[in-house]
Amino acid sequence: MSGRARINGTSSATSASTNGKGPILQRKVSKLLDKKIGQQADRMTVDYPAKPEDAAGLNGVVKKEVVVGEGPRRAKRKARKPAIKDESSDDSDTPLQTKRRRTSNGVKAISVVQSSDDDVPLAKKATQKNRKLTTPKAVIKDKKPLALISKDDSSDSDIPLAAVKLAKEKKNIAAKVTRTEDKKPAVKANGTKRKTVIKDESDSDAPMKAKRAPAGRKSNGVKKEESSDDDIPLAKKAKPTPKKTAAVKKQTNKDSTPDTKVPAPKGKGKAKKEDTPVDAETAEEEEEYKWWENQAETDGTQKWTTLEHNGVLFPLPYQPLPKNVKLKYGGVPVTLSPAAEEVAGFFGHMTDTPHAQNAVFTANFFKDFLKVVKESGGAKDASGKKINMKEFTKCDFSDMHNYFVAERDAKRTMSSSEKKALKAEKDKAEEKYLHCILDGRKEKVGNFRIEPPGLFRGRGEHPKTGMVKQRVQPEQVTINIGKGVPVPPPPKGHKWADVINDNTVTWLATWKENINGNIKYVMLAATSSLKGMSDFKKFEKARELKKHIDRIRADYNRELKAELMADRQRATAMYLIDQLALRAGNEKGDDEADTVGCCSLRYEHVTLEAPDLVIFDFLGKDSIRFYQRVAVIPQVFKNMKIFKKPPKTTGDMIFDRLDTTQLNKHLQNYMPGLSAKVFRTYNASWTMQQQLAKIPNTGSLHDKYAAYNEANKIVAILCNHQRTVSTNHDSMMQKVEEKIKALRYQKLRLKRQILFLEPERKKKKPDFFKPDPEIDDKTWILEHQQSLVEQEKDKIRKKFEKENEKLVENGEKEQKHSELKERLEVIDEMEAEFKEENKTGTVEPKLRGATVEKLESQIEKLDEKILKQETDAKVREGNKTVALGTSKINYIDPRLSVMFCKKYNVSIEKVFPKTLREKFKWALESADDSWEF
DNA sequence: CATGCATACTCCGATTCGGTCTC
DNA sequence: CGAGACCGAATCGGAGTATGCAT
């Protein structure tokens, strides 16, 4: 261990992983990205909750400045090639020869504490593998992956607490890190794969050299490398226990050969009956197939045996507009072919949406529109003269738009019987497509409707947004169906592109869409057994990961110091994926929106703030902004610094030696089927479990439900699931605020009534009669009183008018205006009362039988109301940008929710709406009140 | 105070685009 | 290595429900 004491200590890193440090999500700031085109840099201030256990004392709310949408992202996006060039320079392929000692940074003190284990020379380590693997595990008490959950987490491995940070802030670590790399001769040990060796300025250089011994492995290519990665054969070790463990627990009756692949029952349920346990048979003839009670081990390639369905439903053909409704060009009504008119109509529908203000959208639309116009005979004016449309800005869609709006309104105001008739008609047309018959069972089909034509609404800055999505013809549609069953007839006069019988896929029909060339499918609904089974498998896979997670974390924490750049990047990426729940981040093309995930992060997406803060700011899936300012372990910080080192600059990949394929391949070694996204499922469900465990089993149903939602919210934040705040959110919040104030004023008046009855009370209970600080504002009270007065007036007037209407209707005479005046005199009284009230601070109770007791009970009721309104408002404000649904549907193992409901005696309906109950039927029946993820 | 009714708001499900990952 | 097959995602419109108001 001589001289080998690590400065930043592996032990902290290791412990961080093994005792399950979780995503540091409480630091998360979820804020919607400003999606406007031509992003300007808007500055805004964001509140986010500080880590509760944060020892630095960042309690309450921390203000962060967030910059929205800055800089040209695409501008400097480079090919990944430059990496090669880098290699000759600094860090790449450079073995670490010399060991740099860090002498003067603040971290040193910590380093002393490093455990011996980690300081064992690498060469030796290999031989100690077993120990290495087992020891830390034994020490682990708390496997929780999430930092926020456990207090102790923060204490040990979360060394970088804010206080510490500040203390270290100005130290020269940073400078050191960047300056300390030396150029070393490149090593190209292998022909197949280029490796970059990282020099780690700080510490472990010497051991690295030793470790290079296994370099031989490199020459053997990928496979070898992976297996030797850990001298233990991971893949093998990974599953000392065969499949049995996971899903099958419940199956008592599956005595038929467990390992042989039992394909779906042949024929229609006959085969099924034979190997279906008795209890699975139900009396109903339409017996429900409980696949989760009858788990057949299939290899998964064959998805069905028989399949019957009725094909797809095409949208109605275009209905031309009335002759008087036209697009105008330069003020002149334009006559178009139906095809062109339809496209114009697409836009006409959207003139009041933000799309119409999007330059890319309009440009793409107009280009495609002109093409259609040209191909369909051009545009003419009323006299038949050609109109040559050239400028989008001269187009006036308002006639069309108004027409559509009117149409919609007409539909809305239709009588309910008409609506019903219309719906019945629609249902009838759709009926036969709703279900298919799969392996003899009726299953719901999902999206049997062919997508109608329209304008492509790409999300974010999609280069193709606004392009015309063409009408799909039967000739483009391929049908997939079982052999020997009737093929659904194509629409009259048409043919299918093809009819196939492929039982290795789950789709019933497919076509190619014209915008991106993507393939679209008609598949079964989420409630179907096919989807249900794969959903179930997904969660079982995530649970399987539980068994490997400690080892995986230990490994990547160790490999954060790997000498090979690729390994180190991979480890760092795994850290991010595990801790921050990032997506894998596949490469994307230039004809898509510029969004990234972990592997595709670029220089400009990450900012470092010594000593340990990493700021992520990028657009993820759906161009949803991911912004997080997060403290990472020292080694990760160091690595990020290295990965950002010059000559890398804006546009360059952070992980230039890593891609998702490599990453997933590596993960496969740990566990079959493991890929990056499993971590999201795992961490989400795990977090949920931890959160639910904290909920006390007391209190009202409402409280429990609220607590459940809070847990759900934490998961949603972890996964960065956002939603746009509704346009009227602010006004709604204001309304609620006013409402609460009004209630408070009511309360005040009740108290004043008490004082009227028993003035001496004020001395007895001064606290009770202290002014309510929330409405301790004379002008507000006056305004409020005024508005109450106005309301009253309005009511009286309205009532008066209504009465008159009725009188007129009945042929009688209207009441005189003087009558109204008379009635309005009450208002004068009211105003006088207010005045009196403001003067004396008491209110004469209106009701005869008013007693102090009655008033007090009314006050209590008001208090409840106020509290409810306030908590509701708080929740709404807190959830305005957080979408809970996505995690509930896709990431949180439904059995957790079922467990929660059973254990806490909450009805499942409260937690799962109908469709989810159906989708998760398997979970409803297989989890009890003590089920664990 | 219960009831009926119109309106506001919420929430749900459908939709369709955007990812991941495998072969 | 790109096509293919799925899973995951936010959004949108409408159904359903709460709310407010008059009776």
TrEMBL record:
<comment type="similarity">
    <text>Belongs to the type IB topoisomerase family.</text>
</comment>
<dbReference type="InterPro" id="IPR014711">
    <property type="entry name" value="TopoI_cat_a-hlx-sub_euk"/>
</dbReference>
<dbReference type="InterPro" id="IPR036202">
    <property type="entry name" value="TopoI_DNA-bd_euk_N_sf"/>
</dbReference>
<feature type="compositionally biased region" description="Acidic residues">
    <location>
        <begin position="277"/>
        <end position="288"/>
    </location>
</feature>
<feature type="domain" description="DNA topoisomerase I eukaryotic-type">
    <location>
        <begin position="455"/>
        <end position="905"/>
    </location>
</feature>
<dbReference type="InterPro" id="IPR051062">
    <property type="entry name" value="Topoisomerase_IB"/>
</dbReference>
<dbReference type="InterPro" id="IPR025834">
    <property type="entry name" value="TopoI_C_dom"/>
</dbReference>
<dbReference type="GO" id="GO:0003917">
    <property type="term" value="F:DNA topoisomerase type I (single strand cut, ATP-independent) activity"/>
</dbReference>
<dbReference type="Pfam" id="PF01028">
    <property type="entry name" value="Topoisom_I"/>
</dbReference>
<keyword id="KW-0799">Topoisomerase</keyword>
<keyword id="KW-0175">Coiled coil</keyword>
<feature type="compositionally biased region" description="Basic and acidic residues">
    <location>
        <begin position="176"/>
        <end position="185"/>
    </location>
</feature>
<protein>
    <recommendedName>
        <fullName>DNA topoisomerase I</fullName>
        <ecNumber>5.6.2.1</ecNumber>
    </recommendedName>
</protein>
<keyword id="KW-0238">DNA-binding</keyword>
<dbReference type="InterPro" id="IPR013499">
    <property type="entry name" value="TopoI_euk"/>
</dbReference>
<feature type="region of interest" description="Disordered">
    <location>
        <begin position="1"/>
        <end position="27"/>
    </location>
</feature>
<dbReference type="InterPro" id="IPR008336">
    <property type="entry name" value="TopoI_DNA-bd_euk"/>
</dbReference>
<feature type="region of interest" description="Disordered">
    <location>
        <begin position="176"/>
        <end position="288"/>
    </location>
</feature>
<feature type="coiled-coil region">
    <location>
        <begin position="813"/>
        <end position="872"/>
    </location>
</feature>
<feature type="region of interest" description="Disordered">
    <location>
        <begin position="39"/>
        <end position="112"/>
    </location>
</feature>
<dbReference type="InterPro" id="IPR014727">
    <property type="entry name" value="TopoI_cat_a/b-sub_euk"/>
</dbReference>
<feature type="active site" description="O-(3'-phospho-DNA)-tyrosine intermediate">
    <location>
        <position position="891"/>
    </location>
</feature>
<dbReference type="InterPro" id="IPR013500">
    <property type="entry name" value="TopoI_cat_euk"/>
</dbReference>
<dbReference type="InterPro" id="IPR011010">
    <property type="entry name" value="DNA_brk_join_enz"/>
</dbReference>
<dbReference type="InterPro" id="IPR048045">
    <property type="entry name" value="Topoisomer_I_DNA-bd"/>
</dbReference>
<feature type="compositionally biased region" description="Basic and acidic residues">
    <location>
        <begin position="62"/>
        <end position="73"/>
    </location>
</feature>
<keyword id="KW-0413">Isomerase</keyword>
<dbReference type="Pfam" id="PF02919">
    <property type="entry name" value="Topoisom_I_N"/>
</dbReference>
<dbReference type="InterPro" id="IPR013034">
    <property type="entry name" value="DNA_topo_DNA_db_N_dom1"/>
</dbReference>
<dbReference type="InterPro" id="IPR013030">
    <property type="entry name" value="DNA_topo_DNA_db_N_dom2"/>
</dbReference>
<comment type="function">
    <text>Releases the supercoiling and torsional tension of DNA introduced during the DNA replication and transcription by transiently cleaving and rejoining one strand of the DNA duplex. Introduces a single-strand break via transesterification at the specific target site 5'-[CT]CCTTp site in duplex DNA. The scissile phosphodiester is attacked by the catalytic tyrosine of the enzyme, resulting in the formation of a DNA-(3'-phosphotyrosyl)-enzyme intermediate and the expulsion of a 5'-OH DNA strand. The free DNA strand then undergoes passage around the unbroken strand thus removing DNA supercoils.</text>
</comment>
<dbReference type="Pfam" id="PF14370">
    <property type="entry name" value="Topo_C_assoc"/>
</dbReference>
<dbReference type="InterPro" id="IPR001631">
    <property type="entry name" value="TopoI"/>
</dbReference>
